[in-house]
Specification:
- This protein is an all-beta fold.
- The chain is built from no helices and five strands.
- The protein has strands spanning 11-16, 19-24, 34-39, 42-49, 68-71.
- The protein is elongated, with a radius of gyration of 15 Å.
- It starts with 10 loop residues before the first strand and ends with a strand.
- The relative contact order is 0.30.
Length: 72
């Protein structure tokens, strides 16, 4: 994947008395479309949000939802 095609989802990471919590906004991404990989103490989350929710010949007035490959 080219870095120019990636988007980065909003992510919160915080520590509680029970451990580390990673909260990533991935609305519309199916679990089979993402990968979670631990590399040492680094968590890598990547995948793709499919662009299937709109009609084929629409004309955008505004587009703020990212589609395609992501990585965080």
């Amino acid at each position: 994947m080219s870095s120019a095609t990636l988007w980065v989802p909003n992510t919160d990471v915080y520590v509680t008395e029970h451990g580390v919590v990673v909260h990533i906004e991935l609305a519309g991404v199916h679990k089979e479309d993402m990968q979670l990989v631990m590399e040492g103490d680094l968590l890598k989350v990547s995948g793709q949000r499919q662009d299937t929710n709109r009609p084929g010949k629409c004309k955008f007035r505004m587009m703020e939802i990212n589609y395609g490959p992501f990585e965080t």
